[in-house]
Design a protein that fits this description.
Helix content: 25-40%
Strand order of the largest sheet: 6-5-4-1-7-8
CATH architecture of the largest domain: Alpha-Beta Complex
Number of strands: 19
CATH topology of the largest domain: Creatine Amidinohydrolase
Low-confidence stretches: none
Structural class: alpha+beta
Number of domains: 2
Largest sheet: 6 strands, mixed
CATH class of the largest domain: Alpha Beta
Radius of gyration: 24 Å
Oligomer: single chain
Shape: globular
């Protein structure tokens, strides 16, 4: 298992200079209430280099004349604590998972850092300092940066985020395999939903069915909170209440995914609650599908990322004008109000620049939609696409998508 993480560390070494120290933190589950905490999700950048998923771990990667010297810091096993919260990794287990031979306990981290700075081995410190908004709470890396700069103001602090952006956007064969497995498991969950959809069910029953099927087939969890939006709520992009009863004649928009070995799937499908699209629903659905096919056809190495949404907008606008829903391209924003693509990998919205060109090894979603509130129609169709040397591969092509495929699935249910 550790070959993947060894390869990532070797790749990072090529970005660093002698005297560069990169430190990453696995994180800690935040408190929810009283003595309860939210479920722990490891920092994906930490996982990318170590394969470890435990709380409060740290990894330090120091570039020297000899190469990249990596030290993993873990919690010391404590039998009395483990009786309450479960077993901690031993040093031997951590070495096996990560491929890192130097594993130490957390209490030695501060002295390790101080010793290497004092000995003149550290010129620049790289930390994961990504911050999506001004008001976002400080991460463990940001807190450490503040403390470190007070003690060692002569060491330059840099953000590792920009290097990670470049590294993580290109997937190895192993990473592609994990995403494919997550998609295959997601398909089982979607087919489980398709097998029970009927008027009178509740959206949360679809959500529960998906969670059951993906866990039964090896997923660690849902890769994000499931969206099961029926009727008029299908026009709300991030509707997660999933509390409404399904109504005959409505559509239900599903946006969901499984996580497998920390890698995510992200799939959207829109189904008729009664198993049969109305004429109008089919008309709008076919427009969305046509836009998706146009974008996928355009995806190949060298195409600018931003070009994908232009292709989508052009197709949707032309089709909506043809049926008289809009009179001018400028009106499209009333019915289509999000981008058509994002990167996929360890995170559902994975790292990668949206200003560059498509390259082999990238995995991107393609998710056009139309949202017609006045008609209670919300439709989104999303697949996960791998960019190859020759063009692209739709990794989720086996999941029912066309009108005929969907209606046939309903018609053939036992």
């Amino acid at each position: 298992m550790n070959a993947l993480f060894v390869a990532h560390r070797d790749q990072l070494s090529g970005f660093l200079e002698v005297g560069d120290l990169a430190i990453l933190f696995s994180g800690k589950a935040p408190k929810s209430t009283a003595d309860a905490h939210y479920s722990f999700l490891p920092n994906k950048n930490f996982y990318y280099f170590t394969g470890c998923t435990a709380e409060q771990y740290m990894v330090a990667m120091l570039k020297t004349e000899k190469g990249l010297e990596t030290t993993l810091f873990i919690e010391k096993p404590d039998y009395d604590v483990e009786k309450w919260v479960g077993r901690k990794l031993t040093k031997e287990a951590a070495k096996e998972i990560s491929g890192i031979s130097d594993v130490q306990y957390l209490e030695s981290f501060i002295s390790w850092v101080g010793k290497n700075v004092y000995n003149g081995k550290v010129d620049r410190l790289f930390l994961d300092l990504e911050k999506l908004s001004w008001d976002e709470s400080d991460s463990p890396a940001a807190v450490f940066a503040n403390d470190f700069s007070k003690r060692y103001p002569f060491v330059t602090i840099k953000s590792l985020h920009f290097i990670l952006n470049e590294m993580r956007v290109i997937k190895s064969d192993e990473e592609i395999s994990r995403v494919q497995q997550a998609i295959d498991i997601t398909q089982k969950g979607i087919e489980g939903i398709l097998s029970i959809i009927n008027p009178g069910l509740y959206e949360y029953q679809l959500e529960a069915t998906f969670a059951y099927h993906i866990r039964m087939n090896g997923a660690e969890r849902c890769s994000f909170e499931t969206i099961a939006a029926s009727g008029g709520d299908g026009v709300i992009l991030h509707y997660v209440e999933n509390s409404k009863q399904l109504t005959d004649g409505d559509l239900v928009l599903l946006d969901l995914g499984a996580q497998y070995k920390q890698y995510a799937a992200d799939i959207s499908r829109t189904f008729p609650v009664n198993g049969k699209f109305s004429h109008r629903q089919k008309q709008i659905y076919e427009i969305v599908l046509k836009a998706q096919e146009a974008v996928i056809d355009a995806m190949k190495p060298g195409i600018p990322f931003e070009e994908l949404n232009k292709v989508c907008q052009k197709t949707l606008a032309a089709e909506l004008k043809a049926i008289g829903l809009i009179a001018d391209d400028s009106e499209l924003g009333k019915y289509y109000y999000h981008g058509v693509s994002h990167y996929l990998g360890l995170d559902v919205h994975d790292l990668g620049s949206r200003n560059g060109l498509l390259k082999p090894g990238m995995i991107l979603t393609v998710e056009p939609g139309l949202y017609i509130a006045e008609e209670n129609i919300g439709i989104r169709i999303e697949d996960d696409i791998l960019i190859t040397e020759e063009g692209n591969i739709n990794l989720s092509k086996a999941i029912p998508k066309t009108v005929d495929e969907i209606e046939a699935f309903f018609a053939n249910r036992a």
